[in-house]
TrEMBL record:
Record GO terms (molecular function): ATP binding; CMP kinase activity; dCMP kinase activity
GO biological process, one term: pyrimidine nucleotide metabolic process
Cellular component annotations (GO), alphabetically ordered: cytoplasm
Limits of the Cytidylate kinase domain: 5-198
Class of this enzyme: transferase
Recorded family membership: Belongs to the cytidylate kinase family. Type 1 subfamily.
Originating species: Octadecabacter ascidiaceicola
Cellular localization per UniProt: Cytoplasm
Gene behind this protein: cmk
Residues reported to bind ATP: G9, P10, A11, A12, A13, G14, K15, G16, T17
UniProt keyword list: ATP-binding, Cytoplasm, Kinase, Nucleotide-binding, Transferase
Chemical reaction(s) catalysed: dCMP + ATP = dCDP + ADP; CMP + ATP = CDP + ADP
Name listed for the protein in its UniProt record: Cytidylate kinase
EC number: 2.7.4.25
Length: 201
């Protein structure tokens, strides 16, 4: 029997950290679906056609630190507006969710569109300033030397584009559990998420 955990939320809310920890705790596989859009965005920055890039995406394209830059994040959120690009990525995500050993998928539309009957749906949020500070620490920890104001602007621009698009906008599923991580440590947020998943098993 498959068991699917859908984790959605805005940029840098802690979805990745929580998803990895939940997957490790329960022995589930984890798919960061943002990487699909980032990989398409990266190809478009190199001149590719967005739809063709989405249709020909290979597992190897999802690898690499070059996908973690603010430029690629912006390019990802621009290609993610395109309904055809999104449609080209649906089958891969649903197949991943249906694996027999349990799966955690994190993104923007997992609970609403990709896996509407997921066993657990979490919507992870935090105040924009907190999210920007965390993303700043993460990127500058890798030596990028960015300014807080630029990272905040990047996060807010993506949230706006992701929330206002016509196809699969960022929003909590009606049956999602909201988890605001603004005033939680990573450990506290992870513990809460594990509790919520455990209760649904
Ligand atoms: O989660 P991450 O920041 O890596 O996502 C990059 C971008 O990809 C998001 O800003 C969003 O536009 C898009 N995305 C999406 N649907 C998903 C995952 C990501 O539209 N399920």
């Amino acid at each position: 029997m498959s068991f699917t955990v859908a984790i959605d939320g805005p940029a840098a809310a802690g979805k990745g950290t929580i998803s990895k920890a939940v997957a490790a705790h329960f022995g589930f596989a984890h798919l960061d679906t943002g990487l699909l859009y980032r990989a398409v965005g990266a190809k478009v920055l190199h001149g590719a056609d967005p739809l063709e890039a989405a249709q020909t995406l290979e597992p190897i394209d999802l690898d690499g630190e070059h996908l973690r830059t603010p430029e690629v994040a912006q390019a990802a959120s621009k290609v993610a507006v395109d309904a055809d690009v999104r449609a080209a990525l649906v089958a891969f995500q649903r197949q991943f969710a249906a694996r027999g050993d349990g799966a955690v998928l994190d993104g923007r539309d997992i609970g609403t569109v990709i896996c509407p009957s997921a066993d657990v749906k979490l919507f992870v949020t935090a105040r924009a300033e907190k999210r920007a500070q965390r993303r700043l620490d993460e990127l500058n920890g890798k030596g990028m030397g960015l300014a807080f104001a630029d990272v905040l602007a990047d996060v807010e621009a993506r949230d706006k584009r992701d929330s206002e698009r016509a196809t699969a906008p960022l929003k909590p599923a009606e049956d999602a559990v909201l988890l605001d991580t603004s005033d939680l440590t990573a450990e506290q947020a992870i513990a809460r998420a594990i509790e919520i998943v455990q209760a649904a098993r």
